[in-house]
Amino acid sequence: MAEVMYQLAFIQIMLKNISKDFNLKSDTRVW
User: Fold this and answer.
1) How far is CA 5 from CA 15, 16, 18, 28, in A?
2) What is the pTM of this model?
């Protein structure tokens, strides 16, 4: 179970990083 929780946390971090990159790109597109 610990490994699964670690994988889920890692996936959440990756998704957050991707969302941040997407937000930065969208902001640059607006400008």
Assistant:
1) 15, 17, 20, 35
2) 0.58
